[in-house]
Write a structure and sequence with these properties.
5-stranded mixed β-sheet, globular, 136 residues, 24% strand, alpha+beta
């Protein structure tokens, strides 16, 4: 595990609990899909008016045609490594919902056999979610 998160990183006005859920989900997925001894990296930085967080792994990667699918509810890739178990295919769907509710974006960059980088960015002036908003 390696992390590059500057101490002077600007704060985001948003729902801390839900943003933590997103970050934890991306991190746990990276651990799940990384090979034994593989490196998982977390980076965070300010980019214009946003905060961007990236979680990278050295796992099996995701084919280009499947990259949008991973954010769909109950998504399970047919090419998934048989050694990987667990998950219900809802974590990335919920993450996308939370990030978009903050006015942000979420995505993945991946290459089969080389790993994936999941990222999200939220405006530094993002508004907190209403606690009664449970439309996920």
């Amino acid at each position: 595990f390696r992390s590059d998160v500057p101490e002077d990183l600007p704060r985001v006005l948003g729902d801390e609990e839900r943003l933590a859920v997103v970050t934890a989900n991306l991190f746990s997925n990276a651990l799940r899909y990384s090979p034994d001894g593989g490196l998982v990296t977390v980076n965070a930085y300010a980019l214009n008016d946003t905060l961007r967080v990236e979680v990278s792994d050295q796992g099996m990667g995701i084919a280009a045609e499947d990259q949008d699918e991973v954010f769909r509810k109950f998504a399970r890739l047919k090419h998934a490594d048989e050694r990987v178990r667990g998950g219900r295919g809802i974590g990335l769907f919920i993450s996308k919902f939370f990030i978009e509710a903050h006015g942000g974006q979420i995505g993945v960059q991946s290459k089969v056999g080389e790993g994936s980088t999941f990222w999200f960015s939220v405006p530094r002036e993002a508004q907190p979610l209403n606690n009664n908003n449970n439309g996920a």
